[in-house]
Amino acid sequence: MKSVELFTGAGGLALGTAMAGFHHLALVERDKHSCHTIRENQQRGIAVVSDWCVYEMDVVDFDFSTVDGEIDLLAGGPPCQPFSIGGRHGAHKDERDMFPLFFQAVRELRPKAFLIENVRGLLRQNFINYFEYITLQLAHPELQPNSNESWVDHLVRLERHHNSGANDDLGYWVTFRLLNAADYGVPQKRERVFIVGFRSDLNANWSFPESTHTEEALIWQKWVTCEYWERHGISSNDRPECSAKLRSRLERFGANLLGTMAAPWCTVRDAISDLPPPENVDIASSIPNHIYIPGARSYPGHTGSPLDEPAKTLKAGVHGVPGGENMLALPSGEVRYFTVREAARLQTFPSDYYFPCAWGESMRQIGNAVPVTLAYIIASSIRCHLQELTVCRKMIGAI
């Protein structure tokens, strides 16, 4: 199936969709460092990226008419800074709001489906009207704003059109959900908004994949069966105490969970336990991107990720790397920065995917990425549904 991706970054979303069976005809990214990362992996012979056609340019300058054939999936993560809790909260007033360019891409490419990822801040109360505007413009991409028409006035027209039940030449059925990556096997607590649309003429009936992993299962394996500690070879003397709060939760679980539990959340230890400590330079230096970075320190609000929990959300940061989100908190009480390789593991990049830039820039790229595993799960579901729709239409046509 054919796809186009905008705002590609270092390739997290693109990797997931490619692994799900989508063939990228074009990937558009203006940041030269992110493009360098993808090209470096192409030169290293990483198979999944070998045939990617990367356009190093601003999306506003990309000519969508150069893309041949019908597009099955248009994907992308418009810059999140206008909606990030740590940003300026400008939304449509922020010059980095690229949603209008995604609307344009939908209009011009007319994909069978689209997939968008963005920060959870997009759902904040003070953005609620603009988020409605985004979903309605995606549902009716050809109902464009008039010259000098504000988005607020355009929203009124979109609402009126949407409620009228009028048929569009090009329309989309749109749905969204706030997903926690940890619930899908990613070793990181990362909540992001995903918006998915299917072209109306396909009569799709799609829903987001159900979660596969739970915190309750992790607690159960730690403090009831002890499977977690045994799997990692942690002796009973080296295991932390089960807190009163956790014991209370276990009592609430009761026997109802026995035999019916989902997989446990994946932890930092699950993700990086096979990597040697980066302080051991002689061994760690043989592993790409696994370089010790000194200088980490802990203070309130800047405490790192516990080893035996999913990591805190890795972030790109506005001015350099935000150390609190990119530190590992060891059981001894010490903290250290994650290496680039460890951070890539927490974002479920393939182990051979290489980040050629300096530590800060590489961590920015990783922090901005969509976890590859979560992208793969959602994209696989979209692809399967598109295939089912194609089969149904062929069967109906044969009758």
Question: Pairing-aware structural class of the strands and helices?
Answer: alpha/beta
Fraction of residues in helices?
25-40%
Percent strand: 5-15%
In whole angstroms, the N-to-C terminal distance is 26 Å
- Count every helix, treating DSSP H or I runs of 4 or more residues as helices: 13
Number of domains: 2
Average pLDDT: 90
Number of extended strands: 12
CATH domain topology of the largest domain: Rossmann fold
Unreliable runs: 82-94
Kindly provide the radius of gyration, computed on alpha-carbon positions and rounded to a whole number of angstroms: 22 Å
Sum this structure up briefly:
It contains 13 helices and 12 strands. By secondary structure, the protein is an alpha/beta fold.
Model description:
This protein is 34% helix and 14% strand. The chain has 399 residues and is α/β, with parallel strands linked by helices. The chain folds into two domains: 2-211 and 371-398, 3-Layer(aba) Sandwich (Rossmann fold); 213-261, no CATH class. Helix 1 links the parallel strand 1 (2-6) and strand 2.
